[in-house]
Amino acid sequence: MYKTLYSKGNKAFLELLTQSRLDAGLTQVELALRLQEDQSLISKVERGVRRLDVVELMLWCQALEMPLTEFVRRLEASSVLVDEHTRMG
Q1: Going from the N-terminus, what domains does the chain have, and what CATH number goes with each?
Q2: Residue 48, C-beta contacts closer than 8 angstroms, at least 6 positions apart
Q3: Within 10 Å of residue 9's Cβ, how many Cβ atoms?
Q4: CA nearest neighbour of 65 among 35, 29, 88, 28
């Protein structure tokens, strides 16, 4: 498996996290309050400094009132991921 930290797929993931928050009409502070975290965590995640595990992503989506399946559907719809996956195979 190749490293994903600086991949186009990870960039798409981070952009979707940020856009999903904006679409929900939330600031980083408001999302942090919903997650009972500091705003700095939200910033670090959105900038790619701190990664989310699957359980954290589920909580993040719940705080955005977005089903995890919808988030994954949007991520899978990204042609970037399709292109990278095709290259791997």
Answers
A1: 8-88 (1.10.260.40)
A2: 5, 10, 11, 14
A3: 16
A4: 35
pLDDT one-digit tens code per residue, 57-74: 999 999 999 999 999 999
Q: Which residues contact 39 (CB under 8 A, 6 or more apart)?
A: 28, 29, 32
Q: What is the pTM of this model?
A: 0.84
Cα distance between residue 4 and residue 52, in whole Å:
13
Quote the tokens at residue 26. Answer: 């939330």
Tell me the pLDDT tens digit for each residue of 16-51: 999 999 999 999 999 999 999 999 999 999 999 999
